[in-house]
Amino acid sequence: MAPDGNMTNGFKVVGTRPKRPDGVDKVTGRAKFGADANAPGMLHASIVRSPHAHAKILKIDTSKAESLKGVKAVVTRADFAEGLTGENWNILENVMAGDTALYDGHAVAAVAATTALAARDAAKLIEVRYELLPHVTDVDKAMAADAPVIRSGAADKSVPEGMHPNVVRYHESGHGDVDKGFAEADLVIEESFKTEATHQGYIEPHACLAQLGPDGKGEVWCCTQGHFNVQKVCAALVGTETSQLRVTPSEIGGGFGGKTVVFIEPVALALSRKANRPVKLVMSRSEVFRATGPTASTSMDIKIGMTREGKITAAQGVFRLQGGAFPGAPMEFTAMCAFAPYALENVHQIGYDVMSNRPKQAAYRAPGSPMAAFAVESVIDELCNKLDLDPIEVRLKNASKEGTKASYGPKFERIGLVETLEAARAHPHLTAPLAEGQGRGISCGFWFNHGGETAVSLALSEDGTVAISVGTPDIGGSRASMGQMAAEELGIPYENIRTTVADTATLGYNEISHGSRVTYASGLATIKAARDAVKKLCARAAAKWGIDEEAVVWEDGCAKPSGPNAGEFEPLPLAKIARSMGRTGGPIVGHYEATPEGAGVSFATHIVDAEVDKETGQTKVVRYTVVQDAGKAIHPTYVEGQFQGGAAQGIGWALNEEYIYGEDGRLQNSGFLDYRIPVASDLPMIDTVIVEVPNPGHPYGVRGVGETSICPPLAAIANAVSNAAGVRLTELPMSPPRILKALNDQAHG
Amino acid sequence: MSMIHVSTTVNGDEVEFLCDPRETLLDVLRDRLALTGAKEGCGTGDCGACSVTVDDRLVCSCLMLGAEAEGKSIGTIEGMADGEELHPLQEKFIEYAALQCGVCTPGVLVATEALLKKNPDPTETEVRYWLAGNLCRCTGYDKIIRAVLDTAADLRKAS
Predict the structure, then answer these.
(1) For A273-329, how does the pLDDT look when each residue is reduced to its tens digit (9 = 90+)?
(2) Count of CB contacts below 8 A, A vs B?
(3) Are B140 and A205 a contacting pair at CB < 8 A?
(4) For residue A369, is it left (φ>0), alpha (ψ between -120 and 50) or beta?
């Protein structure tokens, strides 16, 4: 292998399944998560939240709270930076309301006291006077002419004239001529779909411990997917300088996109500054549901034309996403992902970003894509049923390949959709008999994956072991993967490497752990940092031997003379060079900083069998198979884990999970009892097939795997349920009442 | 409000503490005894991340008051390993990657240990229903269930 080249086989460590370095800490209770840190003199904080969906804040009276024993600080919006613009203003407005509460759960004040109980008592004594305003929480109603305006002037220039002010962004893309395409079809199906908002449902609520002194210097410990982003945003919101704030990420108890966002850290910092003491702030589960970032809810219209032979002649979609009281619903992703699996001559998609009186939506695993797949793949399934075509063959016939012009514009490089479909076709699941009352569904799914700013440093110790510092919080076992990639490059045992997620003072800026980017981008940076260290190791050996650096190669963990000098000197192992590095030029550290742009897109095909009880409307998933292109699986067990986790979350989204708002605009199910995520007894084993079509943009071929796994399930399950129930389900979740209604509507046609 | 004095046993050690009558057992374990292995995922007994045993009975420590620990014997995740030797369940969870983020893991392990004490030979369905009160959002439960079944088989062979 060339030192800068790509490698697709001959791996020694990559592709094996070593134990994770944080394993023992996590099975013994020692691992420190967001709420597990304490500091001397620490205060506890509590946040006062609006009980109203939309209300003018007339007055906040904090006097009673401030006179309570143990209370050390109270903050309102006046205690944060002024004059912010753009996204920083949006974040601040969400973190602490200005003159208007925009959703049920919107923060309006906060208090810090000597105990958590005192803080909670004090929060109850803060009196807020509101003037109620009309509210709207449904996406279609929020676009209607008579909808109350959430905030005028929030729309950007993309929005066509005449739209309601709640429509704040607009997207249009595609190519070809869809009218011509529909005219060429033997069958055209048009259908409308709706999906409710869901929550990432991470088990660890947001938590932080923050300190900000009168000198403007501060420390934050928090559970986050991106501590460099926390640093930058907090500095702006409390009005200090970015580098004066050091942020250390805790272990993170699940994120799935929901911890890419800043909610409580600036509040804890503002309280700390006022009290001049460290402040701990931990959300309750109810606060997590009401006031963090669920997904967008959607309303979608899909139209697809197909020939009798199964060729798609044209496809169009309209995607309306409600993203809460702020711009940002990922409607362009929904639109761009919708038809990406298919090579289409005529395709057109429109997206609307719509504001309503709900919490500001946040990313959730492939944000925007699962909903699009639900709508599009449902229509394709219906076309296959009506034209009596095999759903796998139809997808293969239309599948995007290398060189296909994607529905969203660019030409695909090497991709693995066809390979996932072929693996699905060969899987015994596809031909297994179904029992009475069961239906089978399949679906494809697509996600872009991402690169992003990345910095990694790799330091040798004098005993020949290696410490890697990465800046991307480990949300799925990435420390193990980094160790494997470094071991592969350095030729030393995996066990001799320890990977740490370093704080903001240790490395350059690292983008958030999102976009399935960590194993790709931090992995690429780890490989390059290891190669940088190898270059330095070879230089030390060359100096010792008195030969040219270029005449030294790195093999099996040793520097070896090559070319005319081959065999002249004993190979020098890494440990030996490391032992003398203090005398031969100083510490040896490899590092790499870049914004890699070669993230490989990824596709999956899922197969699911569902059983519908027509008496109760209850659905049980009885068999599930995930087939996905990983590019290269560094640690196959963790890749399987991502496939299974995404499928399980998709099952919850498809069948159970939804934000339920009352007429009063209040969230009615802000706990795990009423917002029921799948439990162990709800699910079958989830079978996985890892397809490996290497991504040319990564030295080992890695594609991200975390997000694509949640793209097909909503559709695959909807297809299975529709086939089992004999009626097409067009709204998520397919909870028992919705299934019974669909059966009833059909019976009374 | 005056504090309550409590004498109890935690992981075999005698422990005394003062607590507010409103504090849960979970609050006491985490904030007064520095045993942060049990987590608060919901505070309403729905997620099982705070699972501990009280006189060998599996409970959500967020649903019990600290004051109620008087005279009881509490078992937490911190008491599961025997010195430097991990419990077979702990070993197997690492080997099977039956954890991703790890925040539900202490509760799942405490609950599973309680299951295997009661029923050393559970079926897959029995494991799934026993663990239905322990939410995991990362794994889809597949690797957890396999790790539990495999550990149970190992323990049966060893006994």
Answers:
(1) 999 999 999 999 999 999 999 999 999 999 999 999 999 999 999 999 999 999 999
(2) 186
(3) no
(4) alpha
Contact A203 B49 (CB under 8 A): yes
Provide CATH 3.30.365.10 ranges for chain A: 23-31+451-594, 415-444+601-747
**Chain A nearest CA to B109, separation (Å):** 8
- Domains along chain B with CATH numbers: 4-79 (3.10.20.30), 88-158 (1.10.150.120)
The C-alpha of A626 sits at a distance from chain B's nearest C-alpha, in angstroms, of 12
pLDDT at B1: 62
What is the β-pairing status of strands A558-561 and A572-573?
Answer: antiparallel
> Residue A1: pLDDT band by 50, 70, 90 thresholds?
very low
**Pair A648, A657: CB distance under 8 Å:** no
Read off the pTM.
0.98
Could you write out the DSSP letters of every residue in A556-603?
A: TTEEEE-GGGTTSS--EEHHHHHHTTTTTTS--EEEEEE----PPPEE
- pLDDT number for residue A7: 84
Measured between alpha carbons, how far is A213 from A211 in angstroms, rounded to an integer? 7
- Best residue of A38, A42, A198, A203 to probe chain B, by most B CBs closer than 10 Å: A203
Tell me the pairing of strands A297-306 and A187-195.
antiparallel
Q: Is A717 exposed, middle or buried (0-12, 13-18, 19+ CB in 10 A)?
A: buried
Average pLDDT, rounded, for chain A:
97
Q: Are strands A619-629 and A686-691 parallel, antiparallel or unpaired?
A: parallel
Rg (CA), chain A: 27
**Is A2's pLDDT higher than 70?**
no
d(CA A477, CA B101): 8
| From-to residues of CATH 3.90.1170.50 in chain A | 34-134+222-259
CATH architecture for residues A34-134+222-259: Alpha-Beta Complex (3.90)
Indicate yes or no: CB of A677 within 8 angstroms of CB of B76: no
- Compute the nearest-CA separation of A479 from chain B (Å): 12
Distance from CA of B101 to the nearest CA of A (A): 5
ipTM for the predicted complex comes to: 0.99
Contact B143 A644 (CB under 8 A): yes
The tokens for A6 are 């790509």
Query: Which residues of chain B lie closer than 8 angstroms to A31, CB-CB?
Result: 102
CATH fit for domain A415-444+601-747, picks 1.10.10.10, 3.20.20.140, 3.30.365.10, 3.40.50.720:
3.30.365.10
pLDDT at A45 over 80: yes
Q: Which CATH number fits domain A23-31+451-594: 3.30.365.10, 2.60.40.1120, 3.20.20.70, 3.30.420.10?
A: 3.30.365.10
User: Is it the case that residue A127 has pLDDT exceeding 60?
Assistant: yes
Nearest to A205 by CA among A287, A260, A271: A287
